[in-house]
């Protein structure tokens, strides 16, 4: 890979006041035709293009986005990375992603700031204790790390937590390899690496139509004209159903706003990720000192990238119950991402009835943690026109064959 970053370049450019760094990726005008086009320049779309170029020898690729690179859900999440899902299909896919995360900075030659500080999932009732222990055992059978923590061990790893609140902490699962990563760095790293392999990243280029003939994709109509291709991958998160409809494809997904917020920066007080399913609130602390707090999805359908005050109030009330010491911390900002939720709360990574059209959607609240694994299997699906073993179960046809995976409520945080 050309233009590699290194400690020597950091020193040299630092002595030059960091004014001569080369552009990280190009902003080309679209060509008339590509071997493959990926719609959506978020983490999943950029990862797909990168692995297509690196592993499958497809370098004549374009990634199109209606806005700017990484400006959608990639920039609107709480950056948590874990693989402790219950069912075999889910845990194997997320564990593949975890393995890629562990070497991603070296692979991309870009620091994605992946911090394996551990992820803790609290249990607040006897039923949750049983369900959590079951999930830990299932994880271990699938080679995923996990252990049970007593309330005293929870307090050791999360000092300041109130074990005897009206949400009594009866224990927790603990995945030591889990943690957080810098969301924009992930998008930038994949974009830079893909660009160096010849991929065209075209921002501010909305797709307005998908042209097909005799059941085969011919190309896309865009704000910059028609672009021809025989392979088209859709990776547009909450807008998946809107874009798929351009090809006459109706998807079994719903789009909801998912809320999050961050506090003013404070000194380090939380050195892990603490999640709660029963109250659907989770918290970690960024390297800048902000408290990153996640909430649940709004129950109404919508495409608004904003939150609602009742959800924010309920989430902060729960966080203060768990961590009373944070009651006087001020919140800086809040936002909403658009999540696409499938009936079984699992993604769709699949070929479609339209030849040459591939879909990657339905991640719900679990998209960021799957970024490298999603791109890895989706690239295989596009390049070979068939699913990889790890995403074969996540096909579109499972919704009429009845072979659902049903991760609803089984994951550490239900969708």
Provide a quick synopsis of the model:
With 415 residues, this protein is an alpha/beta fold. It has helices at residues 7-15, 43-56, 88-102, 104-108, 126-141, 151-157, 183-196, 240-245, 309-322, 371-384, 398-401; strands at residues 33-34, 36-39, 61-64, 80-81, 119-123, 147-149, 171-175, 179-180, 200-202, 207-213, 216-222, 225-229, 232-234, 254-263, 273-276, 281-285, 291-297, 331-341, 348-351, 357-361. Helix 2 packs parallel to helix 7 (183-196).
Protein described:
Helix content is 28%, strand content 24%. It has eleven helices and 20 strands. The longest helix is centred in the first third of the chain and has 16 residues, at 126-141. It is globular. The two termini are 39 Å apart.
Furnish the topology, listing elements before pairings.
Elements: H1 7-15, E1 33-34, E2 36-39, H2 43-56, E3 61-64, E4 80-81, H3 88-102, H4 104-108, E5 119-123, H5 126-141, E6 147-149, H6 151-157, E7 171-175, E8 179-180, H7 183-196, E9 200-202, E10 207-213, E11 216-222, E12 225-229, E13 232-234, H8 240-245, E14 254-263, E15 273-276, E16 281-285, E17 291-297, H9 309-322, E18 331-341, E19 348-351, E20 357-361, H10 371-384, H11 398-401
Parallel strand pairs: 1-12, 2-3, 2-13, 3-9, 5-15, 13-20
Antiparallel strand pairs: 4-8, 5-7, 6-7, 10-11, 11-12, 14-17, 14-18, 15-16, 16-17, 19-20
CATH class of the largest domain: Alpha Beta
Number of domains: 2
Given as residue ranges, the uncertain stretches (5+ residues, pLDDT < 50) are 409-415
CATH architecture level-2 label of the largest domain = 3-Layer(bba) Sandwich
N/C terminus separation: 39 Å
The CATH homologous superfamily of the largest domain: FAD/NAD(P)-binding domain
Q: What is the 3D shape?
A: globular
The main sheet comes to:
8 strands, mixed
Q: Mean pLDDT, nearest integer? A: 92
Structural class: alpha/beta
Q: What is the name of the CATH topology of the largest domain? A: FAD/NAD(P)-binding domain
Quaternary structure annotation:
single chain
Percent of residues in helices comes to 25-40%
Q: Would you report the number of β strands?
A: 20
- Report strand order across the widest sheet: 6-7-5-15-16-17-14-18
Provide a count of the helices: 11
| Rg over CA atoms | 21 Å
Q: Per DSSP, what share of the residues sits in E-state strands of 2 or more residues?
A: 15-25%
């Amino acid at each position: 890979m050309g233009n590699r970053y290194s400690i020597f370049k950091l020193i040299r450019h630092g002595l030059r006041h960091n004014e001569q760094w080369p552009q990280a990726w190009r902003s080309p005008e679209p060509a008339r035709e590509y071997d493959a086009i990926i719609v959506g320049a978020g983490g999943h779309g950029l990862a797909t293009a990168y692995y297509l170029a690196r592993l499958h020898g497809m370098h004549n690729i374009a990634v199109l986005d209606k806005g700017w690179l990484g400006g959608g859900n990639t920039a609107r999440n709480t950056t948590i990375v874990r693989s402790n899902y219950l069912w075999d299909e889910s845990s194997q896919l997320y564990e593949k992603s975890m393995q890629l995360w562990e070497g991603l900075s070296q692979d991309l030659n870009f620091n994605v700031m992946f911090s394996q500080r551990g992820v803790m999932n609290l249990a607040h009732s006897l039923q949750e204790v049983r369900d959590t222990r079951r999930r830990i055992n299932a994880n271990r059978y699938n080679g995923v790390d996990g252990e049970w923590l007593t309330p005293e061990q929870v307090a050791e790893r999360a000092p300041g937590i109130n074990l005897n609140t009206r949400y009594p902490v009866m224990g927790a699962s603990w995945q030591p390899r889990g943690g957080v990563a810098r969301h924009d760095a992930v998008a930038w790293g994949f974009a830079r690496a893909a660009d160096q392999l010849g991929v065209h990243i075209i921002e501010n280029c909305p797709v307005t139509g998908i042209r097909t003939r005799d059941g085969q994709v011919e190309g896309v109509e865009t704000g910059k004209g028609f672009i021809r291709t025989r392979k088209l991958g859709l990776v547009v998160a909450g807008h998946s159903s809107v874009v798929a409809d351009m090809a006459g494809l109706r998807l079994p997904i719903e789009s909801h706003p998912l809320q999050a917020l961050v506090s003013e920066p404070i000194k380090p007080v939380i050195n892990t990720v603490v999640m709660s399913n029963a109250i659907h609130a989770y918290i970690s602390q960024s390297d800048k000192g902000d408290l990153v707090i996640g909430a649940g999805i709004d129950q109404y359908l919508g495409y608004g990238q904003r939150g609602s005050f009742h959800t924010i109030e309920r989430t902060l009330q729960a966080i203060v119950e768990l961590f009373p010491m944070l009651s006087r911390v001020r919140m800086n900002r809040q936002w909403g991402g658009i999540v696409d939720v499938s009936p079984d709360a699992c993604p769709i990574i699949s070929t479609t009835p339209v030849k040459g059209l591939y879909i990657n959607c339905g991640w719900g609240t679990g998209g960021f943690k799957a970024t490298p694994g999603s791109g890895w299997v989706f690239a295989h699906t596009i390049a070979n026109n068939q699913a990889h073993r790890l995403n074969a179960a996540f096909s579109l046809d499972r919704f009429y064959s009845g072979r659902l995976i049903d991760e609803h409520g089984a994951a550490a945080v239900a969708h």
